[in-house]
Amino acid sequence: MCHERAPLHCFVPPYLLREIARRGTPDQQAWAWRALEVSEQFRGERRALGAIAAAVTTPAGAKRRSVYDAAGGTSLPGKLVRSEGEGRTKDVAVDEAYDGAGATWDLFSEVYGRNSIDGRGMRLDSTVHFGQSYDNAFWNGRQMVYGDGDGRIFHRFTRAIDVIGHELAHGVSQFEAGFAYEGESGALSEHLSDVFGILVRQRKRREKAQDSDWIVGKGLLMPKVKAAGIRSMKAPGTAYDDPVLGKDPQPAHMRDYVETWDDNGGVHINSGIPNRAFYEAATRIGGYAWERAGKIWYEALCDRLRGDSGFRDAVSATLSVALERYGPTSAEAVAVRDGWAAVGLKPATRGR
Amino acid sequence: MKVRLVRSGGFAGVRFKAELDSVRLPEEGAQRLARLVKDSGVLALPAGGAARPAGADRFAYRLTVETEGREHTVEIGEQEVPPALEPLIAWMMSEAREGTA
Hints:
The structure holds two protein chains of two kinds. Chain A is of the alpha/beta class. Chain A folds into two domains: about 10-175, Elastase, domain 1 (Roll); about 185-340, Neutral Protease, domain 2. In chain A, about 45% of the residues lie in helices and about 10% in strands. In chain A, strands 2-1-3-5-4 form a five-stranded mixed β-sheet, with helices on one face. Chain A has a two-stranded antiparallel sheet with strand order 6-7. The longest helix of chain A has 22 residues, at about 185-205. Chain A is globular. Chain B is built from two helices and four strands; from the N terminus they run ββαββα. Chain B has a four-stranded antiparallel β-sheet, with helices on one face. The longest helix of chain B has 14 residues, at about 25-40.
């Protein structure tokens, strides 16, 4: 971690520098700024610094949500149907998109101190009723988009709040690590979206790690489909087994990593491996997963991971955050190390 | 003529596949397949590999057409599908959803 290019600054981890840049005396702020600049240059990333600059120079952000209706078409964003502060509509998808975006914004703001998707108060735009029988939800680089499902296999996609958290978290990842959406880095993007998605649901339900089912996309499939949900973070590969859907293809261990051309190199498949590592770490730590496990993963996303990061970089990143925040013999650091070991991953022998 | 479609990705990451073969379709279906393939311009599309635009959880299609001793495969993200290709993909996806493939 420590390099001669930044001998002074490397003792202070980036999350602490951010705190100082936000809350320190003017002298401390100026010092933290220079340190952050050096470390950002060193990491070759400028976006993150832009986000911090905004966090320092703009007051604590307020939630700004807009929900649009595509009315079965594919033009985005569609017609504006609900803005921040407006009352409920008669459209359940509109209200679910509004409430889910709010719960996700609250997690990032109240627990991680983040001002929206980009860290600078970006408006949260969502479009519902996208396409005809469209069985998907996605992040298009600027906003969240939800289909109604085909009504035979898939329900409407706003029905599961963790789907909303998942899509919004793709936006956060875009402004932080900026993962290349393929192979291991793409699977890390999917993994982090599942993590923050399930944390939004657990926090809304005040559910502890050991009490959660860790099922992503619960309630998204119609009742006659043989499925608990879309993905199991606790036991990847067991979420569904159905004549039409087939069997859940997720591996739960690195030895079963799936090499494929489909799905941008299996980004929704191999995310099962880090997903289970998070479950293992969070349940070992215990309590509310968004508090400590979630914070470690969030700091790793913001300060340690980059566009080309792979699974082993994620091991090193989360472990180094846990070591710095909680200490080398802490239950948190041990849980993170053991969580990754459970899926067959060890930290890289050399950091970078 | 044989046409195979694989749809992967999307939030759910569920893989759907379908195959249509002229010799196994009723005459009307075989004609429809030939017409949709011709109208789609799929045989003139590049194999793929275009830089992916920003975003996540979009569907990815892999479409393979076998005709007159030639095989052509196109890999394409849903946001890049030309309108002329949409009817062929929609038909094959309805077949895939029946679980008959």
